[in-house]
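Technical note accompanying the year-one report. For the benefit of new consortium partners, we illustrate the data format agreed upon in the data management plan: each record pairs a sequence with a C-alpha cell string. No post-processing was applied to the example shown here.
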Amino acid sequence: MTQPTGFTLLLCIALLLLSGCAGSQHKENPADYYLSLSGEQINREISNLEENLSRKDSAQKQAVTPETSYYLALLYSHHNNPLPNYARAAALLDGYSADVPHGPEKQRLLHTLDLLHTINNFAQVEGECAQLGEEKDTLAADKKFLEADNQSLKKKCAELKRNFDRLSKENKKMRNSIEQLKMLDLRLEEKKRAIQ
C-alpha cells in the first residue's frame, strides 16, 4: 500500500471542509431565519415569541432579549403571514427602536416603522371601505324594498283616486237627485196649499 502524498491529504481536507463535515464558523442571522418561515411556522413562532415577551414583566426578564420585539414585528408583518397584524408590528418595532442608538440601523428601523404605519393606515382604510361597501349593499337592498313599497303605494293611490272620482260622481248625482226631490217637494207643498 502506498502512503498518502501531501497533495492527496490536502485534497481530502479540502473536500471535508467543502462538504460541511467540518464545523461551520458562521452564525445564521436570526432575522434571515424568521424571514424564511412559511405561514404555519410563522404562527407557531409568533406564539413562542409572544410567550417569551410576556416573561419580560416577570422574574425571567433577563432571558428575553430586546430583539424579541424586532423578530415579532418581522413575523407580524411577514409576507407569508396569513393574518398579518401591521398595527402590532408597528407597536413592537416602535418599542424596539426606542432602545436602538442613532445610526444607520435606527434610520432603517424608522423607515420600516413609517412603512408599517402607512400599511396599517391602508389596511384601516380598506376595512372602512369594506364596511362602507356592506352599508351600500344594505342601503341598495333597502332602496329596492322601498321602491317596491312605493310602487305598491302608487297603485293603491291610483285605485283610491279612481274610487274617489267614482264616489264624487255618485255624490254629485245624489246631490242633483236631492235637489230635484227638494224642488218636487216644494212644488207639492205649493199644490197642497193651493188645494186647501
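Partners are asked to follow this layout when depositing records. Residues 31-133 form one domain.
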